[in-house]
Amino acid sequence: MNDYMTEDTAARSADAGIFMWQLSDDTVYADAALADLFGLDSREAERGLPIVRFLDRIREDDRPDVAKAIHEAIVTGEAYQRDYRIVRPDATEVGVSAFGRCFRDANGTPSHYAGIVYPSIGQPMPSERLFWHCLQAHDLARQCGEMEMVELLGQALRRYGRRSEHDTSIH
Asked: Is 88 exposed, middle or buried (0-12, 13-18, 19+ CB in 10 A)?
């Protein structure tokens, strides 16, 4: 599966989605475009769902970073921006970019979090670009006979769960 949207997935989820999270009762209100991106029922999303229903759709290895960034945005009041992948119920992955900000009530207490999520149509996610750069470096190191570097880059490639089709030493 790619870390970015295929043309077919993009056609189904081409619109940016907006949301508002009411922190006091942990309810996220989202439009139909956001529900579609996350593979959720649009009527339920418009009436409000707990944040965990959205977080559970974020790819497992992206989830900790996203959760930490959202938490920091709530605590600091700073803007939030992250690229991550959503795993839809049909197992397709959708790369997205998300922007948000936490708003405070008159007492300074975090109360609402609003944002927008849009698909990264055809644009590789940062982890995908990192993988390909490591793969290129691995191939160059092999060509130069730098076997120690080949092994180190092989370890990095294994970390991302991928193998070079050109080199069987990456297991």
From this structure: middle
